[in-house]
TrEMBL record:
It is a multi-pass membrane protein. It is an enzyme of class 2 (transferase). This is histidine kinase. GO terms for molecular function: ATP binding; phosphorelay sensor kinase activity. Its EC number is 2.7.13.3. It is found in: Cell membrane; Membrane raft. It comes from Chondromyces crocatus. Keywords: ATP-binding, Cell membrane, Kinase, Membrane, Nucleotide-binding, Phosphoprotein, Transferase, Transmembrane, Transmembrane helix, Two-component regulatory system. Its main location: membrane.
Amino acid sequence: LLMGILVLTFCGTLATGVILVWVFLRRERNLSELQADFVSKVSHELRTPLTSIRMFTETLQLRRGDPLSEDRCIEALTKESSRLQQLIDRLLDWGRMESGRRIYELGEYHIHEIIDEAIKAFEPTRERRDVELEISIDASIPKVSCDKSAIVDSLVNLLSNAYKYGGSPRWIGVNVVAIPKGVSISVRDNGKGIARREHKRIFEKFYRVDDLLARQQEGSGLGLSIVRHVMRAHRGRITVDSEPGKGSTFTLILPSKLSSRSQAVTGSQPA
Ligand code: ADP
């Protein structure tokens, strides 16, 4: 009987060991698949504006002296290099977040300041084409403790998306209301909306909805994953409410007070 118990214990331990090794190997394989996927997506994203820059530089050299071509090429080169710059900035931002190295400096702010700054930063994009902007801010909004520039960047991200994927004529509504223990900031557009099955995926890094509109628009697929990271670091969240044909509403939920212990948070939670 003792021998039987020993054999059974040995077999049990062996089986547990085999299962653990299998789980570990599977995780390693998933990680290296994710890494390879990441490298290929980043390379692709960087190569696209670089290819355009090379192409326009060659055209500029070939058509030197033709003012029309020169103007067109310089305009395209400026656009493509700023796209590259934005992509690199986003990647650096995202890298700092992933490694938990991004430090958020908390302060107390009136929501008006944050909205004003976000609208100002969004203006250059707005000037390109017409967009009607409708802003409504509840009178009784409490102050929020947050990293102002991170929240402004997040709002600019949502406004730029509402513009890029918006309807015609473009309309964007910003609505700020007080909620129990916090503030809710919604950015609404009149665009073509997002199918329910995509609602979770659009927050994944590098994910872009595979449709004509998204393909026509510049983007890295990193914006919303960064916003989600920022919101989690603030103990808040981002939600989406959208249906095809009915526009989209993205809402940032910010707690009005973060724990007084945390003067700065690193946001090391997974994105
Ligand atoms: P991108 O750089 O591609 O805009 P984001 O992470 O900001 O990256 O968004 C991910 C995807 O979610 C976009 O590619 C787009 O397909 C979809 N999306 C985001 N915002 C909107 C919106 N307001 N309306 C429709 N689709 C949107």
